[in-house]
Amino acid sequence: MSKSTEEKGIDHHRTSLFGWLRRSFLTGLVVIAPIALTLWLIWTVAGWVDSWVLPFVPIWLRPDQYVGLNIRGVGVLAFLIFTVMVGWMAKGIIGRSLILWGESLLHNLPVVRSVYKGLKQIAETVFAQSETSFDKACLVEYPRKGIWAIAFISTSAKGEIDSKVEAGSDKTAVFLPTTPNPTSGFLLFLPKSDVIELEMSVEDAAKLVISAGLVYPDGTQAKPTPIGEVRSAARSGTA
Hints:
Blueprint: H1 5-53, H2 64-67, H3 74-90, H4 93-107, H5 110-127, E1 137-141, E2 148-156, H6 159-164, E3 171-177, E4 185-191, E5 196-197, H7 202-210, H8 227-236
């Protein structure tokens, strides 16, 4: 038994309403999720830092003793002030002398010195302001000629690597990240003539890598092409 025109209209209206609700929900989720996750992460990290730092803060300096409320973030503020003071002292002669003296004590401990050296290298790599940052983004041919990949220029090849590699041109070290996780990748030593420098910043190039080519430096997003159109173009020889 076929449906009447009125019933078909009602079903179409319900389908349209459900589609509108679904699209609106997904759009709202895209807007709310990053904000909510960011606030939740900040709140969680602040609570974690407070749990570690507050036991070392004198009771008379804690605001909860005066206002009767447990204000989250006091430990974070105390940690920031303490870190700034340590950094300021470390820049002076006395501070550097104390650091060298403390490191000399740690280097005499068999197990502790290995742990300390490893953690110090990680900290210097992550928090160094300029020495360990990439210079520019670039294009290199990888994994074969004719295929281009985004990489980051690290530094010129030096020492044994520079002397052992075939002479004839300057060599440079580039880091070729993987997608969508740019923290892993490959370290390549290439002739500078094989490296094409890009005008985009390192941050924009990283966004392009992480998004698998969907987010471009100007902030626009690449429009995905339907699979049917790709197949039709491939059959006609235009893709």
